[in-house]
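#onboarding

Welcome to the new folks! Below is a worked example of what a typical request in this channel looks like: someone posts a single protein sequence, and someone else replies with the predicted structure as tokens. Don't worry about understanding the tokens yet, we'll cover that in week two.

Example request:
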Amino acid sequence: MKIRITAALALLLALAACNRPSTRFTVSGTVTDTLARMPGSVVYLIGTEGPVDSAVVKGNSFTFKGEQDKTKQLIAILHFTGRDKYDDRFLVSFVPDAERIRIDLDYPATVTGSPLTDAITEFNEATMNLYYEHETDIGSLTMNGETEAADSIYRAQLRKIDNLSRETYLANTDNALGKLALGILFDDLEVSELEELMAQGADFIRNDESLNALLKTKKNALATSAGAPFIEITGNKADGSPVALSDFVGKGNFVLADFWASWCGPCMRAIPTVREIRDKYAGKGLTVVGINMWEQNPADGPECASRMEMDWDIIFTSGSEAIEAYGIEGIPTLILFDPEGKVADRLLGEEGLEAILAKYLD
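Example response:
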């Protein structure tokens, strides 16, 4: 009798195993480019923190295996012998959410067999279609000087994208698509709304370092909006001597702080406007101070300032002190401090700067 029971249990367990969904994934990949036939070609599998696996290309094929995880996006990218580490012509991102996934690292690369990857592709296409929906109309209105009408259409497009992103996130709070959609909302929503949405997400969303860093930036920007006291920033002058924001702010003059980087095209285009405003209002109590940040090479800031003839005081910073202190989300950010050292106004880009200065100094 015991033998019969044991055999029956074994049969039941076997049947259960057959019906239980697999928690593993297998990527079967191909590389069609003739360069893939070079000995030593490798496909790397890259996660958020760097490479997690690699596979040698054999007969134009490669394989990866691992645990399914619908919360992550991985990148498969080709490396040819004798080239830079990766060749970004042959890469694709995917979610390892299915038992069998196929990747063709052609040009362009494709993924099949992953439902979430398909959904992310559809979401990205939908947002891009909305973004460019009225591109021709916006361009025509702008060229004709009807900037308000163009801006109205543009903002309507952004609202459509936000609505789609919110709807997508709320339907996918436990997977990578939801995280992607929530990330788009960070540009336009207030801190309280973002906190409410994040609270509805799974643990991996609530605890995500990148999303929480974005939220912190939004909070710091809010904390340094109009009426807030200035926060100290320290750095060096071009000659290496120490300098601080407090050397200029709170001394009885209005101070316009321009946060910029040498590689930032909009920052460079804003320099003539900043110079004109400095010249116009210097006699009315305005001081201009540059805050150089986000430089990969510390020498790039001073070199750019000299080349662009930025003949005002500049604080050359390193690290993230200035970024975090004022919640800098993009550059050029321009912050106007009043004579007592409080934030009078702030804006992203130089558009509208003349009107702000006129309000306080004319």
